[in-house]
């Protein structure tokens, strides 16, 4: 097929990576076209209806993937303008400085990054400003250096959660205020619900659409195309550069050319797109595309005290990193702990369908809901492949011993804080707990598809800026790290590729 139009920069995907990259590059004046397979998420009653979201799965995608055994499952990835951030928990926390170096865990050692925390720190600050992060410095002993304070103060604890914070302090823990992308007043004005796993329809959540994309589209040189399904990347005849992409929109198949192509379709879909774009895969000299898939080991932990009522609405304001850098006794690290959004009876019913909702409501009324998260280690055998028209995700869970120790430690601490009943349940593959790593950055093109600026070693005009690039999962939410790297890459493209393109003109 012939190229029907051209852009200076094509961005595939409008999630955290793609939208933030476009925001960073927009001031250059380059013609940027963002291709998003989904549509805008419109406001509706279901957007604040827990039964619609969690029991009926109104916003889940209508697609199936294959697992490693060839069985189908419905993935929890979302296809809207703004990508997965439309339903994310809005925790915008930095990787710890130690996460950029190799770390010895109980079940293996991480490879580290091709650059250190100091290289990314200025971009973390810019990302926090772009996403209006609410937070406070000083309470988290694992917090890395910040060159500037958070733009806004923390989202306030509700009274019931303030009491929880004090209970934790009394047993020697150091709870800190989670850095959040939430303006709580407009969120609650729309409806008094949590925001975690609830879709944002323009009422206070700082997501890729409301912040990154809004910033980009404020420039006339940036265009968003909804319902644009990219089928494959098209290489030049000599295979050295990417000529453009083949895309289907409104039933019409076309090829759009570009000087620079930026892939940001998500850790699974970006890898699948590269793999199905040619027989050997695009940017795959290393045979690493699709490999090293990681997904945080995570569990929900409910702390129940029949003597105390939890009447909070949103709940999700506290984090605990006491066991992040070690296990509390000088041993290997365990991970991060944070509050979940308030888990009400309709949400519990989705996971316990045979339990009476009335009984679940009584349990929820006295429960505080936690999220325990441990690092998943990169393995070449944990991978995304393409099986005909199907995506196969063979997640080889690792470092599970560490996660079990984290959950056990959390349970012990919660009992010490006066919660006589503590229950836990691990999340399965239907919950995409921060998927990453399938097109990782590195220094050696024999083992990594991308260089430290997310440029493909095999194709100098191809970049990948979503969670695919992450060489390690760490044990905190990755959204802010993706945004920071996207801004860093945008600045690099502006200084190198676009400048060279203008000079050639």
Automatic annotation (TrEMBL):
Q: Which InterPro entries match?
A: FAD/NAD-bd_sf (IPR036188), GMC_OxRdtase_N (IPR000172), GMC_OxRtase_C (IPR007867), P2Ox-like (IPR051473)
Name the needed cofactors: FAD
For this UniProt record, the keywords arranged alphabetically read as follows:
FAD, Flavoprotein, Oxidoreductase
What superkingdom heads the lineage? Bacteria
Q: Where is the signal peptide?
A: none
Is DNA-binding one of the keywords UniProt gives this record? no
Stored Gene3D superfamilies? FAD/NAD(P)-binding domain
Alphabetical list of SUPFAM superfamilies matching this protein: FAD/NAD(P)-binding domain
* Glucose-methanol-choline oxidoreductase N-terminal domain ranges (all copies): 204-296
**Which stretches make up the Glucose-methanol-choline oxidoreductase C-terminal domain?**
430-486
As for family, the record states: Belongs to the GMC oxidoreductase family.
Name the UniProt record assigns to this protein? GMC family oxidoreductase
Q: Which organism is it from?
A: Bradyrhizobium iriomotense
The uppermost taxa in this organism's lineage are: Bacteria, Pseudomonadati, Pseudomonadota, Alphaproteobacteria, Hyphomicrobiales
């Amino acid at each position: 097929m012939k190229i029907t139009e051209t852009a200076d920069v094509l961005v595939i995907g409008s999630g955290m990576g793609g939208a933030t990259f476009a925001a960073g590059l927009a001031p250059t004046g380059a013609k940027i076209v963002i291709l998003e397979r989904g549509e805008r998420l419109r406001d509706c009653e279901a957007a604040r209806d827990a039964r619609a979201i969690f029991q009926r799965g109104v916003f889940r995608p209508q697609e199936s993937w294959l697992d490693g055994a060839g069985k189908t499952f419905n993935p929890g990835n979302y296809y809207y303008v703004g990508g997965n951030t439309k339903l994310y928990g809005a925790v915008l926390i930095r990787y710890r400085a130690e996460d950029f170096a190799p770390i010895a865990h109980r079940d293996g050692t991480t490879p580290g990054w091709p650059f250190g925390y100091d290289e990314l720190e200025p971009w973390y600050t810019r990302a926090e400003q772009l996403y209006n992060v609410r937070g406070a410095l000083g309470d988290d002993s694992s917090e890395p250096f910040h060159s500037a304070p958070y733009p806004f103060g923390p989202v306030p604890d509700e009274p019931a959660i303030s009491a929880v914070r004090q209970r934790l302090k009394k047993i020697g823990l150091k709870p800190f205020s989670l850095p959040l992308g939430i303006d709580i007043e407009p969120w609650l004005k729309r409806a008094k619900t949590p925001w975690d796993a609830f879709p944002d329809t323009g009422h206070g959540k700082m997501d890729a659409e409301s912040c990154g994309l809004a910033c980009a589209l404020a420039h006339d040189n940036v265009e968003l195309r909804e319902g644009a399904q990219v089928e494959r990347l098209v290489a030049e005849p000599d295979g050295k550069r990417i000529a453009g992409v083949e895309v289907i929109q409104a039933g019409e198949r076309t090829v759009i050319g570009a000087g620079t192509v930026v892939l940001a379709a998500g850790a699974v879909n970006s890898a699948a797109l590269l793999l199905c774009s040619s027989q050997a895969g695009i940017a795959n000299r290393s045979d690493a595309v699709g490999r090293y898939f990681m997904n945080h080991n995570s569990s929900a932990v409910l702390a129940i005290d029949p003597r105390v009522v939890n009447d909070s609405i949103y709940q999700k304001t506290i984090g605990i990193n006491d066991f992040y850098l070690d296990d509390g006794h000088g041993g290997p690290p365990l991970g991060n702990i944070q509050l979940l959004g308030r888990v009400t009876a309709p949400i519990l019913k989705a996971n316990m369908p045979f339990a009476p909702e009335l009984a679940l409501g009584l349990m929820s009324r006295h429960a505080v809901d936690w999220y325990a998260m441990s690092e998943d280690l990169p393995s070449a055998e944990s991978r995304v492949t393409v099986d005909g028209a199907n995506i196969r995700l063979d997640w080889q869970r690792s470092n599970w011993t560490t996660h079990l120790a984290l959950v056990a430690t959390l349970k012990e601490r919660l009992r010490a804080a006066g919660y006589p009943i503590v229950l836990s349940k691990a999340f399965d593959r239907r919950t995409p707990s921060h998927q990453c790593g399938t097109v990782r950055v590195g220094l050696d093109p024999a083992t990594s598809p991308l260089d430290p600026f997310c440029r493909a070693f095999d194709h100098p005009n191809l970049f990948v800026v979503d969670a695919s690039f992450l060489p390690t999962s760490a044990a905190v939410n990755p959204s802010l790290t993706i945004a920071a790297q996207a801004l860093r890459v945008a600045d690099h493209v502006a200084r190198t590729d676009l400048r060279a393109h203008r000079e050639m003109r």
